[in-house]
Amino acid sequence: MPGTTCQIDERQGVSILSLQSEDGTNRLTQAVVRGMTETLRHLAASPRPLILTGNHRFFSAGADLNQIAAL
Predict the structure, then answer these.
(1) Is 24 left (phi over 0), alpha (psi -120 to 50) or beta?
(2) Residue 4, exposed/middle/buried by CB under 10 A (0-12, 13-18, 19+)?
């Protein structure tokens, strides 16, 4: 199963955090949520506005159900 990554771009004074995965579902795994949390903590000190986005279909399909089942 492809993993989801967070990508940060800065354009015209705005930080853009986008979720990206090969299959386009942008599943929220524990690792992705931890990564987003650290990134958001880092960006919180910035005066730039922040936009959170996914792909052309949706932000995220939701939590990774395999990890939820394991809990």
Answers:
(1) left
(2) buried
Paired with 37 in beta bridges are none
Distance of CA 19 to the CA centre of its chain: 4
For 5, which DSSP code?
Answer: E
Strand partners for 25: none
pLDDT tens readout for residues 7-61: 899 999 999 999 999 898 998 988 888 888 998 998 888 899 999 999 888 899 8
Q: Please answer whether residues 67 and 29 qualify as being in contact, where contact means their C-beta atoms are separated by less than 8 angstroms.
A: yes
Distance from C-alpha of 54 to C-alpha of 59, rounded to nearest angstrom:
4
Which tens digit of pLDDT belongs to each residue from 36-49?
A: 899 899 888 889 99
